[in-house]
Every structure is written in structure tokens, then in C-alpha cells.
Amino acid sequence: MTNPPEPLVPIVHGATNAQQSDPALPPAPVKPTRPGWVLPVIVGLVVLLLAVGGVAAWAITRGGTGPFAGAPATYAPPRDGGRYDTPQALIAELERRGVACTGYDETEGAIGAVFRGSCYIGGQEAVVSIYATSADAQAHPRILAGLSEGIDDVDMVVGLNWTVNCDTPAMAAQLSGVLGGQVVHDPM
Question: For the domain with range 87-186, which CATH number is right: 3.30.200, 2.30.30, 3.40.395, 1.10.150?
């Protein structure tokens, strides 16, 4: 006669043969399993965090936020601001440095300047003037301060042969960081 078949005992990974065949022994610990979607989700979150961190690092090294965000952090403008032949050349330099100066409108018959025109940087007006000499550029803030005394502050950046009149002292400081030149502030 043959022996009756032994009852089937489920195989538990990590259990000894004695634990699997002897019901008197405590059951072997069952290794927890994760659902199949957990690992891809964890990997996806790690990749997402790395991507966000990379974008943030890139944005920080490009100069922060706002209209001056594109100016590279490692760029050092010429201290004196350099020379430009036309307002468009100065605006092109701003754009090379990541600052958009949009809607340029030339001023016909500019008094005291060879060329003058205005554009908008981050919604604020900037008046760009090019002068025949450095002395003319250096004199412009004093002349403008005299004309606008008691009416408005003078906030501008002065380069070798150019000036940029700005809406605010902060805008003048930011432009100076991109173009170089001297920041002039004359309160009313």
C-alpha cells in the first residue's frame, strides 16, 4: 500500500524546512512585498526633485528673477560703462546680457545728446541717451536735476558717453550691474 500524499504546505521564503513542515513551530516571518507601482513612483519623484533643483540652480546663476534675470552672475561689466555709438547698440548689449528693453522709440531733435530714445525694461521706462563727449554725458545728471528740482527725482546710470534715465533707484542699480557706469540719484 502507498502512503497517502502529504498535505501541501505553502513555501514561505526564509523559513526552514522544519518550520514549514511542523505546525507546532511558530510561523516563519513573511517578508513584506511592495506593490509594483511603488518603485517607479519613488524613482519618478527623485528625478523630479533633481530636475527642479537643477532649474532652480540655473535660475540663480542667471541672476535671479525679474527683467534682470538673464544677466550671467559671472559677468563683470566695465566699471566706466564703456562707449556706445547709438542707443540701439546699448540696447543690444542689454539684450546680450539677458535684459529685454522693448518698444524703443527714438526722440527726434534730442537736446544735448546726439541720440535719445526710450524703451521699457520690465514695464518701467528707460530713456537712453548717447552724447558726443564724455563731458556731455557727465553733465547731463546735473542739468536734469536742475530742470526737475522739486518735481521728480533723478535716477540714472552714466557711462563714458551715455546715460540711461530710470524710473527708480533700484532699476538704476540693476542696470549698472549689467552695463557698468555710475549710478546717480538726486532726490527732489
Answer: 3.30.200
Q: Which residues touch 70 (CB under 8 Å, ≥6 apart)?
A: 62, 63, 97, 98, 99
Strand partners of residue 124: 121
* Residue 162 in this model has a pLDDT that exceeds 70: yes
Residues 82-132: tens digit of each pLDDT:
999 999 999 999 999 999 999 999 999 888 899 999 999 999 999 999 999
Going by the DSSP 8-state scheme, the letter that residue 63 receives in this structure is T
CA distance 67 to 69: 6
- Alpha helix stretches (DSSP H) within the chain: 17-21, 38-61, 87-96, 134-147, 169-179
Q: Give tens-digit pLDDT for 163-185.
A: 999 889 999 999 999 999 999 88
In the chain, the largest separation of any two C-alpha atoms, in whole Å, equals 123
Report the alpha-carbon distance of residue 18 to residue 20 in Å, rounded: 5
Structure letter (DSSP) for residue 151: T
Q: Delimit the domains of the chain by residue range.
A: 35-64, 87-186
